[in-house]
Amino acid sequence: MGSDKEQYAKLVCLFLAEQLRTRKISLHRAADIAQKVLNNINLLNDEHDFLRLIKELSKDFEELFRLEDRVFFWVEANERKNMEASVKTFAIEVIPQDPKLALEVMLEAIKEEVKLEDLKQKFPMFSDYLQRSQHG
């Protein structure tokens, strides 16, 4: 199991432990949920798959509705963190040749509402860099 999948399993386990501690769920029900997640964990390729799994399982396990929001915010935070890391590596590479472009991308990236797709559309060189770094 990859580290991302371990992270997803850990989030579910921590959630179930909290639900058990606060007596919001029975041990049997927690075990059922944990088993269902474990049965599907190898189907997950990314955080969005994890969020979809939690939403799907919420249909059978209403307790997971409380986890959905947490997973959504976790996914959003990770996307932001990954975007910032990409911008940082881009800026480090580009600054010697084009400091103005590096600064523009960084200034745009620090805006709260900006997503990676926005940066890729606004800055074609950044988009090209991301494609090169994924295939290189």
Fold blueprint:
Blueprint: H1 3-21, H2 27-40, H3 47-58, H4 65-94, H5 99-109, H6 116-122, H7 124-135
Give the key terms.
single chain, 136 residues, mainly alpha
Structural account:
The model has no long low-confidence stretch (mean pLDDT 92). By secondary structure, the protein is an all-alpha fold. The chain folds into two domains: 3-77; 79-135, no CATH class. The chain is elongated. It has helices spanning 3-21, 27-40, 47-58, 65-94, 99-109, 116-122, 124-135. The protein is built from seven helices and no strands. Helices cover 77% and strands 0% of the residues.
- Rg, please? 19 Å
Instruction: Classify the helix fraction into a percent range.
Output: over 70%
What is the string of SSEs from the N terminus onward? HHHHHHH
* Unreliable stretches: none
Class from secondary-structure proportions: mainly alpha
Distance between the termini: 25 Å
Number of domains: 2
What's a concise summary of this model?
This protein has 136 residues and is mainly α. It has helices at 3-21, 27-40, 47-58, 65-94, 99-109, 116-122, 124-135. Helices cover 77% and strands 0% of the residues.
